[in-house]
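Our collaborator T.R. sent over the components below with a one-line note: 'Predict the complex.' Nothing else. No constraints on interfaces, no templates requested, no preferences about which chain binds where. So this is a plain run: every listed entity goes in together, and whatever single assembly comes back becomes the starting point for the next discussion.
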Amino acid sequence: MSVVAALAPSSGVAVARTLRGWLLPLGIFVGFLVVWDILVRFLGLPQFILPAPSRIAEAWVVYLPELWASTTYTLVEIVAGLIIGSFAGILMGAVTARWVGLRESLLPFAVAVNSIPIIAFAPLLNNWFGLDSQLSKAMVAAVLCFFPVMINTARGLLHVDPAALELLRSGAASEAQVFRMVRVPSALPFVFTALKVATTLATIGAIIGEYFGAPSLSIGQYIVRYAAFLNLERSWAAIVFACSIGIGLYMLVVAVERLVMPWHSSFRAGEA
Amino acid sequence: MTDSQTDTVVQLSGVSKVFEGRGQKAARVEALSGIDLSVRRGEFISLIGPSGCGKSTLLRIVGDLIGVSDGTVMVNGKLAREARLAREYGMVFQAPVLFDWRTVQRNVELPLEIIGRPKQEREARAREMLALVELGDFAGHHPWQLSGGMQQRAAIARALALDPAILLMDEPFGALDEMTRERMNLELLRIWERTATTVIFVTHSIPEAVFLSTRVVVMSARPGRITKIVPIDLPRHRDVETREMEHYFELVTEVRESLRGSEGEAVDPRRVAAEGLSA
Amino acid sequence: MSTRRRLRPALGFLLIVAILLVGWEAAKLLAGDPWRFPDYGFYWDPPLRWKPVNDLNLPHLWTIFGAFWELDAKGETYLSSLIGAAFFTARESALGFALGTGVGLGLAIVLIHVKVLERGLVPLLVASQTVPIIAIAPVVVVGLRAGWFGVAIVATYLTFFPVTIAAIRGMRSADPRAFELMRSYAAGRRTVLRKLRLPASPPYLFTAFKIAASASVVGAIVGEFPAGIRDGLGGALLQAMQYYSFSPQDLWAAIAACAALGIVAFLLVVTAERIALRGYRPTEDGARA
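Returned assembly:
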């Protein structure tokens, strides 16, 4: 606790610096939206993929109740999938790190499966658990998260400074102590990297799972239905929600990371 | 083109360097102050001093990799910048800094490629340099397949590829073990005798400085000033036995004492005039 | 590494697949629907019943295998139509991947040399990686109204973000003293780019390529599906979904085709990596995935 408190002032400076570093990019982004808006509205350019940002904002406000309901519905799936997939991934990662035999067979298998478009299993999971079930989409999200988390956890637990291992062995430390004192702290950065990726994957998994069949008041169905009707403003308003979920969860993981590993993230303050 | 009077290759006059701080974090650092130094053609000068005394900075100033805050740097009668653009330098760092993706020979060819020499000429010259440093058999290897000492030899070969007027070396043997280091010292001297390049050599090692140089420049702690210049009047040709000569030990002791030297140590005024020292 | 050690991952992989397949049928033996082979007079009634392993949810392996050889109205096997669909999707992904790599590299080179743009755009690029872009694929495909080319555009988009970031990192990765060295040779910016920055990038680029290749394939499938593009794997999945109650094995076959495409794409990149990075310093084996 005191360690965190002692670092608080410097992390305050770091936060301020990060915020300042965001001024220019945010400016560019907002500028981009404004220019697009003008082009589409006043020059009457056909609303190709992106309708005028102002119209999207309108749709966002007008349809807020149903958008919000859809978001909460989908959010449940995403979070559930993230938790299930991450836990399983960390567990299996630890298991493969511990037993060499498992590692040599499981890890390459995991790498190969990771390259399969797991999304393709979404229709199957829908059929198993039912189109209207949130569980099916959560499972898609979980499966997507599982492999990167497992692979990175294993790598992190194994990526230990050999000198640190020797130090502990010379002190006759048990495997469990080595695990706790050296492997876990060394694995944390890897695990958090994987978790950050996992938040995006879980979001993608849930939404795409919904594309293949879900109640209409879910983000995925909302996006696809209104896109099919060429009602693109409503589609994009829903996409904005989807992006916010993704970014929000990512920032949550970053916040947890900062709490758990203050030494590491403040060291990397200001790094993109 | 050389200075017709004294055949001076490098002339530093009143050189100082201040690194400005950025924001509240980094403070203003005065790295060098009032450096005056003349280096004649064919000399081997070592710069030695405590950590942070600015010797690497001074080396880079000579090579126009860093600018001066005050004073002038003349190389071969022109400004350092012009000398760099005329590619009159060869540089060797503490790490070999060879390109992983090129073979040893192609690494040595790099400067020749940059100035646009045709393929045959490049290859011939590279092979010649590799033979000079006795790496001919490893031309087709990749740097990471070679030992540390061999990689440094390749780096030296590359530095000599354009037949530079000046060789700048920043603790090139610092990362090597003692025995390899002594061997490399001998090799470097042998190469120096053959190419007759002027060398400015930064080092932490007193024995190395004395063994290699014609003059040793001792610097003070930050802000770096020249404390003393010790002429090394050992025989021109040096070898293993030189390290056992009594005069060698005397010189090592002299350098060591200058390093330890306090301010206000008496300096022989005749020496000041002859060597262009500054207090 | 001895041949035996090198084969171990492959053997391990096969072992796990074998275990899965055996487990598959074993589960059905225990708790699936009755096994009927009237031609051989064979009948087996499993002791338990568990819905997830019945014939609708988990068809027999031989049924799935048989699905590949079913003939459709045109007399074509399902396998050949799936292969055709895979090629169709592969073309979209490959085109997108190639365009994305070109754009990504070009953008990275510009950003490296124009500091202002870099400070403004790189945070946006990094942030965009947290956005579920793949999920937006269908909307883009529908909106562009360009059919399969729209899908290729999606793949371009998915590729160029990771490639740009990796290229910037790679071009910055050289030892600062290497840059000093180039300066001592009075090398101009173009020379530094050609002889130092670009050759330093491939290790980083290939990490991005692996991600991008996989993302392009997934993005293509996802993009085709809701937009109703029938010729690719997305279309095959859609069709198999519609006939699921009649022949669940078709969906499995279609999924297998998607998996095959994903693995092939990954293997292509890994092979290319092995060739391209031959001169480079070897890193810990198996470190990239």
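Summary for T.R.: The longest strand of chain B covers residues 8-19.
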